[in-house]
Amino acid sequence: MTLKKEKIEELERRMKKLGIREDQLVEKFILGSGKGGQKIQKTYSCVYLKHLPSGIEVKCQRERSRELNRFFARRRLCEKMDEIIYKEKSEKQKQIEKIRRQKRKRSKRAKEKMLEDKRRQSEKKQWRSKPGEES
Predict the structure, then answer these.
(1) pTM for the structure as a whole
(2) Secondary structure (3-state) at 126
(3) Which of 2, 71, 91, 129 is deepest in the core (most CB within 10 A)?
């Protein structure tokens, strides 16, 4: 997979807008880790990027290609700068937090209170039924 010229130009415009210059970046190519076997452990396709003025560090080994990883590392750096500058959370971060909230378990006290409310509601409905009627 190769990058289209428009994507590269769009990234350069975004970097310029955020005030990120190439001379402010420290870029290193390091050995990747994780899945991939011998190939990943002997090629330097993982990109480490550091923005000196802000101290933001990014590591990217998403693709096999070093050039694609360079692009994605710069894009991730721009996203992090956006978050810092505009104090907004990225869509991805919002999605992660939403899932975390959904998975969170109720506390013991909250669960007891909920069950007590259900029991009261059930009793209320039973009192409304006609005498001698059983469900």
Answers:
(1) 0.62
(2) helix
(3) 71
Tokens of 125: 């409905």
Distance of CA 74 to the CA centre of its chain: 16
Structure confidence by residue, pLDDT tens digits, 96-122: 899 999 999 889 999 999 999 999 999
In the 3-class helix/strand/coil scheme, how is 96-123 assigned residue by residue? HHHHHHHHCCCCHHHHHHHHHHHHHHHH
The pair phi, psi for residue 35, each rounded to 5°, is -65, 155
Torsion of CA 4, 5, 11, 16, to 10 degrees: 180
Q: Identify the architecture of domain 5-88 in CATH.
A: 2-Layer Sandwich (3.30)
Question: Is the distance from CB of 30 to CB of 46 less than 8 angstroms?
Answer: yes
